[in-house]
Specification:
- The protein has 430 residues and is mainly α.
- It has one domain (29-419): Up-down Bundle (Growth Hormone, Chain: A).
- 74% of the residues lie in helices and 0% in strands.
- The protein contains 20 helices and no strands.
- Helix 1 packs parallel to helix 7, helix 4 (97-113) runs antiparallel to helix 6 and helix 14 packs across helix 16.
- The longest helix is centred in the first third of the chain and has 29 residues, at 67-95.
- The relative contact order is 0.15.
- Residues 1-18 have low confidence and may be disordered.
């Protein structure tokens, strides 16, 4: 009788040895390049989303349509991003994380640059639909790449760094709008905004494919295991995984509602209900993004030291409290900037999901699980901003903007229904 221990048929046979404590300096060259690529992909996703919002006024004036048509453009883009995110997650489990990431970046970068040629609402709708398809998969791909390349003891901080690409991208869009748009106009600004396509060349040369994914595919084909050949989107809803799929989806959905219901309408609330000027609203945006960046970094540290669930719960409940504090206390005075700084800081809860989602699903369906749960939540969230305006019209803005606090509170509690994944060796997840 052989004394050899059985191994998983569709996960690489990695012994459950405890990894040494890792830090940025201890990461190898490939891990660092992977992290930079993931940060870049998510940064340029945010950059693209915010650029069209910031340049909405000149676009509407030039093409001759009003806010209702712009809302249609943004809705089409958001819907396409949900569709693209689900499809890209499945694609990444079939062809690899690196190839899928390159395809996504090319789609959204080139379609963004093509806005230069837009001469009608119809053409803009088509281009932003294509842009949305590319944008949708970035989060799941970036988080999956990071999680499969970075050691478990540094994974929380690495995922937080990847998520921090979002506030950095928002700031980059603000800089483009402030410095470039007045000089070259909105069309040329979008043409120049196609430069993220160059990132693909760098990824192709320097970023390796996930070794964990390669080993999993090779192991599954070699042993001809039925589970290795299952369709990923079917398997995440199988008996083994449906509970974790639903719980992750519900937690993200609550967070999505909390985030977009509040932050979509906050600038309008500040101007219309609290008497702020547009210039002060711009300063508010910068301060919140600085706070968000700090929040992501602190959240990542808490994840690695104290656990994923605690980090998610503390930041979500903290955001719920800060929303209530904001609505109760904020006036047109100096201390609003401290409050919005903290509001931005507690949105660091997003960093928790990158770890939790990718550590919940096994390698063969990891990108699919992340893509489906995140982007189906994003699709449903289309109704969030509408709910806020409906409640505000029936009651008042304070009550309408208090609803997101409930979503954040629920997310902070719901996360405890999922297992703690801190320090989990991804190759041993079944």
């Amino acid at each position: 009788m052989s004394s050899q221990q059985p191994t998983l048929a569709y996960e690489p046979a990695t012994p459950p040895i405890e990894e040494p404590k890792a830090s940025w300096s201890s990461l190898n060259r490939e891990a660092k390049f992977t992290l930079v690529a993931a940060i870049g992909g998510w940064l340029f996703d945010s950059f693209d989303v915010m650029l069209i919002s910031l340049l909405a006024a000149p676009i509407m004036k030039s093409l001759g349509f009003g806010p209702d048509k712009l809302a249609l453009v943004l809705s089409i883009q958001l819907g396409a991003s949900a569709l693209g995110g689900i499809f890209t997650g499945i694609l990444a489990d079939y062809i690899g994380r690196k190839k899928a990431l390159m395809i996504n970046i090319l789609i959204y970068a080139l379609s963004t640059g093509a806005v230069f040629f837009t001469n009608s609402l119809g053409m803009l709708l088509i281009l932003r639909f294509l842009t949305g398809l590319g944008l949708g998969g970035e989060w799941a791909l970036s988080m999956t790449l990071i999680s499969e390349k970075v050691p478990a003891s540094f994974r929380g901080r690495a995922v937080a760094m990847g998520n921090a690409g979002w506030p950095l991208g928002t700031l980059l869009a603000a800089l483009f709008t402030y410095f470039l748009f007045p000089v070259v106009g909105w069309r040329a600004t979008f043409a120049i905004a196609a430069f993220p396509a160059l990132l693909v060349l760098w990824i192709r040369r320097y970023v390796p494919e996930s070794q964990l994914w390669l080993e999993t595919r090779k192991s599954g084909r070699k042993l001809n295991q039925p589970k290795a050949n299952k369709v990923p989107i079917v398997e995440i809803f199988s008996r083994n995984y449906i509970r974790r799929t639903i719980l992750v989806f519900l937690a993200i959905l609550c967070t999505m509602f909390a985030y977009w219901m509040f932050w979509t309408w906050l600038p309008t609330y500040l101007v219309n209900s609290r008497g702020f000027t547009l210039s002060k609203s711009s300063l508010w945006m910068i301060i919140t993004q600085v706070g968000a960046f700090a929040g992501y970094m602190v959240n990542g540290w808490v994840q690695d030291k104290l656990g994923r669930r605690l980090a998610m719960s503390v930041f979500s409940i903290g955001e719920a409290v800060m929303i209530v504090v904001f609505l109760a206390l904020v006036t047109n005075s100096a201390y609003i900037y401290l409050i919005v700084l903290l509001l931005g800081f507690f949105t660091g809860y997003w960093a928790s999901y990158g770890s939790i989602v990718t550590e919940t699903f096994p390698t063969r369906i990891r990108a699919t699980g992340a893509g489906v749960t995140y982007n189906s939540s994003r699709a449903i969230n289309l109704v969030g901003p509408v709910i806020v305006t409906t409640v505000a019209a029936a009651t008042n803005w304070n009550l309408a903007l208090a609803m997101p606090a409930v979503g954040a509170l629920l997310a902070g509690l719901l996360i405890w229904t999922l297992p703690e994944t801190k320090g989990r060796n991804l190759s041993m997840i079944e």
